[in-house]
Structure of Transcriptional regulator:
Amino acid sequence: MVLGQDAEGCCPTLLSAPMSEEQAVDLAKVFKALGDPVRLRLLSIIASRAGGEICVCDLTPAFDLSQPTISHHLKLLKQAGLIASERRGTWVYYRPLTETTDKLAAVLTGPGSVVAAASAEPAGAAS
């Protein structure tokens, strides 16, 4: 998945230039996948796992949901390009696709962004 690139090969931020229709469609797919609390938690669990991957057998107990429901959410995260999977015997292992999350972060923040500038302001500083 390509979230969009500028002339230097980097993703434009939301503040730097209007995005194309194609970029908006691609980005909306990622946001839609992240728009569900279960999927957001799944991505967080997968991405924060030591070793960079986790078995579905370790994901299911973290939720009060059936295994098919968890598999459905994982499928949507995979279709959005946020995770990858590999079958090993009867189990499936998931890992984050950091290139997608890195591009998403770059689109939302970018170098010198308002978010970065706001976090660098001293406490109590008025704008």
Q: What stands out?
A: Helices lie at 21-34, 37-48, 56-59, 67-79, 98-108, 114-120. Residues 29-94 form a domain with the Arc Repressor Mutant, subunit A fold (CATH 1.10.10.10).
